[in-house]
């Protein structure tokens, strides 16, 4: 009994000092055994306890991987529910009814194309996403149901070009055209002069939004004309996850 109390006290001391490696190791063991919800809850706890910036960055990176893998799987999770396909349903109708995206419905349920059948049970996300953009850190953080989901390195506007405040996603476009800011020429996707990457998430403020980039080496810098730039692979994921109406807070 005495030995147990000594060990318990040691664990408390280590956690109080910010060493959350035992929690991280516990999370990895749980994840390897298929206990994905337990794994990410353990990492959420580790994230709250540590003040070490390097450890926190690694925990956030790994938690983001786990969160995305869980969401895109058939594993049950607290933010999702099982919905039965009704007569007349399509993926588009279900997505509109449930406030999610067709792309996420396909990925979470391993559906190719648009074919679904009456009585089929689909995993459907019920909690909303929130996007927070930090101009100081050039970081976009995605939250699900009010909790950290995943973080991305971005570029924001030089100077005060990126507006601050709260916005909403209004346009979700794959292979968007781009209007040159000086010549006003419309440049279609695929043109050598096209600059905004593979996807566009426009805000309810004309001319501003989140998009890909043809200069990934400049991510992490404040260099854009005002929009938020992401790596093309990252903006594709974001486009597939967040529906129109998603809140965007720029700070």
The oligomerization state is single chain
Q: Please identify the top-level CATH class of the largest domain.
A: Mainly Beta
The count of β-strands is 14
The chain-level mean pLDDT equals 92
What letter string, H or E per element, gives the SSE order? Answer: HHHHEHHEEEEEEEEEEEEHE
Q: Would you give the CATH topology of the largest domain?
A: L,D-transpeptidase catalytic domain-like
The percentage helix is 25-40%
Q: What is the distance, rounded to the nearest whole angstrom, between the alpha carbons of the first and last residues?
A: 52 Å
- Total individual domains: 3
Strand order of the largest sheet: 5-4-3-14-7-10-11-13
| Strand-pairing-aware structural class | alpha+beta
Please summarize the sheet with the most strands.
Answer: 8 strands, mixed
Alpha plus pi helix count: 7
**Rg, Cα atoms, Å:** 21 Å
Task: Supply the CATH superfamily name of the largest domain.
Answer: L,D-transpeptidase catalytic domain-like
Poorly predicted sequence stretches spanning 5 or more consecutive residues: 1-17
């Amino acid at each position: 009994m005495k030995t147990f109390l000594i060990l318990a006290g040691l664990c408390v001391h280590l956690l109080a000092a910010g060493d959350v490696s035992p929690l991280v190791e516990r999370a990895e063991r749980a994840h390897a055994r298929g206990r994905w919800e337990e794994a990410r809850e353990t990492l959420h706890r580790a994230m709250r306890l540590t003040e070490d910036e390097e450890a926190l960055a690694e925990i956030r990176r790994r938690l983001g991987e786990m969160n995305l893998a869980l969401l895109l799987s058939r594993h049950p999770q607290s933010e999702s529910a099982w919905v039965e396909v009704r007569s007349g349903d399509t993926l588009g109708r279900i997505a509109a009814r449930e406030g999610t995206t067709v792309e996420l419905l396909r990925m979470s349920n391993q559906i190719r194309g648009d074919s679904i059948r009456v009585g089929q049970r689909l995993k459907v996300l019920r909690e909303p996403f929130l996007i927070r953009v930090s101009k100081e850190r050039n970081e976009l953080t995605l939250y699900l149901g009010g909790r950290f989901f995943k973080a991305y390195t971005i570029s924001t506007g030089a100077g005060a070009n990126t507006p601050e405040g709260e916005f909403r996603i209004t346009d979700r476009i794959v292979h968007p055209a781009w209007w040159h800011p000086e010549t006003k020429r419309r440049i279609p996707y695929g043109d050598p002069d096209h600059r905004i990457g593979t996807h566009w998430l426009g805000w309810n403020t004309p001319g501003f939004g989140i998009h890909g980039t043809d200069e990934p080496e400049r991510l992490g810098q404040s260099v854009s004309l005002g929009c938020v730039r992401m790596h093309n692979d990252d903006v594709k994921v974001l486009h597939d996850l967040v529906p129109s109406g998603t809140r965007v807070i720029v700070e």
